[in-house]
Amino acid sequence: MDNFYIVRFFDDWKVKRVSYLDHVLTRLVNMSGVQKNLRTAHAIDVILSRIRGGREYQFASSGDMTNVEQRMNLYHLVRQVLAYNVEGDLVEMGCNEGATSVLIARILKDNNSEKKLFLFDSFEGLPSPSLVDGVSFKIGDLVTTEDNVRANFRKHNLPLPEIHKGWFKDTIQWLPEKICFAYLDGDFYDSILDSLVGVYPRMSKGAICLIDDYCDPGVNPNGLNRLPGVKKACDDFFADKPEKIEFIYSGHYPHGYFRKL
Fold this sequence. Notes:
By secondary structure, the protein is of the alpha/beta class. It contains 8 helices and 7 strands.
């Protein structure tokens, strides 16, 4: 299977200059000994916002909010459930502008799969963070629109998925009856917990759930642990479950996953 489209077909996949700037500043700060593992991404975001007259720096095309390692993870895990013909459809909780959604849809298309893709997002930005979510993001950050998602799918000549707008706790009723693959990108504790509550009981045996921003510093001390509420939500939810979250390498951007027993 030719999977080079992960970087070629999505031709706007490039390391942005702002990303280079962030990495350089982070390295310099860490070398100075001011604070170990201090991240400069928030400072870069603030600078960009001021340059743009107070507007948040938003990404408008596929490839800007994921790295190639994350896309490789998505590719191989989605391919697994298709290869083993796991029952159910595919779900993304927190699709934002569809950066990962278009990749999932492309994999389905290339495999001539009749499985459906369901997308869920508030399209109002992030909800209010709790104390366990850290200070990297605030209420309203990452706001986008359904039109941006649709434009991303048109750009890549892919069929539109089923899109559900609203907070996860209000829209999980629209989840498919059976799920073979779920991608959770809710950022905050409550969003991830609400997603797991809705998705887990609908997952078929052998189904896979990939969780964005799941950072385990004990396993990967160099991971970008900006959203600690994600791991906390997973720890709480799986305390009485037979499955356990496994860390999967994805560069600086953390991923965790589990397979339904």
